[in-house]
Amino acid sequence: MRCLLLCVGIFAAVALTCGKVKFHPLSDEFINAINNKNTTWKAKRNFDVNTPISSLRKLVGVLPKKENADKLPLKIHLKDDVEIPETFDAREQWPDCADIIGTIRDQAACGSCWAFGAVEAMSDRICIHSNGKVKVLISAEDLMDCCTECGGCNGGWPDDAWSYWGKTGIVTGGLYGTEDGCKAYSIAPCEHHMEGELPECGPYQKTPECKTVCDKGVDIVYDEDLTTGSGYTITYNDVEQIQTEILTNGPVEGVYNVYEDFFSYSSGVYQHVEGDFVGGHAIKIIGWGVEDGTDYWLIVNSWNAEWGDHGYFKIKRGTSECGIEANVVAGLPNL
């Protein structure tokens, strides 16, 4: 018996020293584990600990690339004559478009990040390339509902979104409950942050039905409101190519891998330090900079302005952190 107890004690000690305790990804213990690593960012509680992990997975809605999918053309910039600044913010570069660029949207209880990253960058580029004369929000609702080959609330493909913009066109439309454009987003905002005042996110939504008419009460004709543009991808993992594209044409849509620690982001320059892979997520990159010696991308998320750093976050730049530099998509509007 004494030998058995001794063996059990040795086994327990090895488990504690060699093994790794896995905490619930929304628990205080998990958040403390991140902050105890003294990394480049800070974590805090963004979601209630009782939020189902399945609900978090549905927020990250970029699906694996389809086999034999149509490819957008590759855009390659000549960088010799481009001076890339140490810091850049599209809102400051194009102040007449700052309100469009800085709009924080809410995909709500729907895996439509792929659509939001696309229409946000499209909206910015219409404003920028019209010299601030055309200020519209392109409709995430119209893209998500009507581009059946692009995806829906169960996820989608950013490349297809930009291709659809060129082939079919997308109407205007703003945030839920507004009359800002033809088709506003139809899914109500919900809470992605513990300290907010929005209603709790309920069951995840099905993709709404495609309607090729504008919202009731809006004096706009759907077919006359369609905007179109081109779509292309930026050179794989080339930081200066991405920077040159943003400097030249405006914000871009980016895709990266989300891990469990990202949901607790609060401030600083994010890099993955804890937790398992969750899925792919699409966002909008509007600039870059350096914080405490760490290079970063400045990014707009679509989980409302109460999440993270008022709807924004920073992620480490230059090492393709979580694949952020491996899949960047953009295009030019037809004005």
TrEMBL record:
Gene3D superfamilies: Cysteine proteinases. InterPro entries: Papain-like_cys_pep_sf (IPR038765), Pept_cys_AS (IPR000169), Pept_his_AS (IPR025660), Peptidase_C1A (IPR013128), Peptidase_C1A_C (IPR000668), Propeptide_C1A (IPR012599). It comes from the Eukaryota. Keywords: Disulfide bond, Hydrolase, Protease, Signal, Thiol protease, Zymogen. One of its GO terms (biological process) is proteolysis. The keyword Flavoprotein does not apply. Residues 1-19 form the signal peptide. It holds the Pfam family Peptidase_C1. Belongs to the peptidase C1 family. This is Peptidase C1A papain C-terminal domain-containing protein. It comes from Zophobas morio.
